[in-house]
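Example record used in the benchmark description.
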Amino acid sequence: MRAEQVQAFIDVTEHGSFAAAARHTGIKRSTLSASVNALEDSLGVALFERSGNSLQLTAVGESVLPDCYRLLTSASRINKHCQQHLQGVESQLCIARDDALPEAFWRQVMHDLKQRYPLTAISVYLLPPQEHAQFVLRQTVDIAFGLYTAEGAAVNASNLAPVSMSLVAAPDHPLSRLPNVTKDDLAQYTQVCLTFDQGDKLVSEALFSTNYLGLTMFEVIRDAVINGTGWALLPYPLVKDALTNHTLCALNHDLLLESHYYRYVEGESLGVVATALLTNVTRFLGTTR
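Model output (structure tokens):
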């Protein structure tokens, strides 16, 4: 029993006759007939009742049809798995990332990867960038993406692009009413900042205020600022829409802020899917500067 014989049986069944199947598939009628005959010989049963030009599935033909569909699906998956292996496509990819880039981007890029590489199992773990290096080192993930300050980058992290940062507050926050904010102004109000695990203790990246609320995700920080909880320093790609629709206000200032870069940390050499992901992230960053 060969896959092309099973396919011929399905084609003839779906189109109702050898002639109709030949027209729709472009395969000669004689070839289809020979394939079905060979399948029946190998199985030792008749799959069709033939009467002149009409065909009807036998009882056994009808009973094996669902399994024939399953067999072709399995055969196709086997071929695709082998082709992916030959092309260097990973069978599994584990990713760590922060949420400095919008969720809409990540949803779309994950959708595109699964459409392009449907047999690659992909896992995504969301955590602050300061914890990425240890996850890669432990081989928990294959690649990690995150926002780092120049001083805070992991030794083995590679730059993708600089990211503009915005000091933001809610439109009705007292800081938003000032023509220009200073360090002393910021210190008077709660800073909502990133918190991460470092040596079994929580560390918060507070800039100018000892009064802070530390949270583990940029999007949660942004939403807390929109709610009026405090001010924050956030990546521009994440707050762009909120600034446009005026749910956030960019604070005017002359402060010298640390440079931030979006970087990636990789484990072993990148495979095809990880490389495609890296290309997508780089392309997106190029449109948000």
